[in-house]
Amino acid sequence: MANRHRGEIEARLGGKAYTLCLTLGALAELEHAYGGLDLLAIAERFEGGRMSASDAVKIIGAGLRGAGNQVSDEDVKQMTAEGGAAGFMKIVAELLTATFGAP
Fold first, then answer.
1. What percent of the chain has pLDDT over 70?
2. How far apart are CA 94 and CA 74, in angstroms?
3. How confident is the model at residue 17 (pLDDT cuts 50, 70, 90)?
4. 77 is in which domain, residue-wise?
5. pLDDT, tens digit, for every residue of 84-100?
6. Structural domains counted in the chain
7. Is-above-0.85 flag for pTM?
8. How far apart are the C-alpha atoms of 69 and 98, rounded to whole Å?
9. How many CB atoms lie within 10 A of CB 95?
């Protein structure tokens, strides 16, 4: 069960419940994925409302691995979410809010 006090969320992907968490290691993974941008620069990118499907894959993948799930970004690309693309964006928004707090 997800613990919001630790920055965890629960999400259904491909019909299966997963816990996601952006741990320090997962955040470092995202910094690397974005060419060394720091967390503030990455957050500013998303605050502007600009998010691609590739962004969602990176964030969801890092969150899944941060919570101990053995999945690759290629695995994430094959997953489905309730609500389609909007469902994926909702998962990303919940995960970022659980990690960094509400704006």
1. 99
2. 22
3. very high
4. 4-100
5. 999 999 999 999 999 98
6. 1
7. yes
8. 18
9. 25
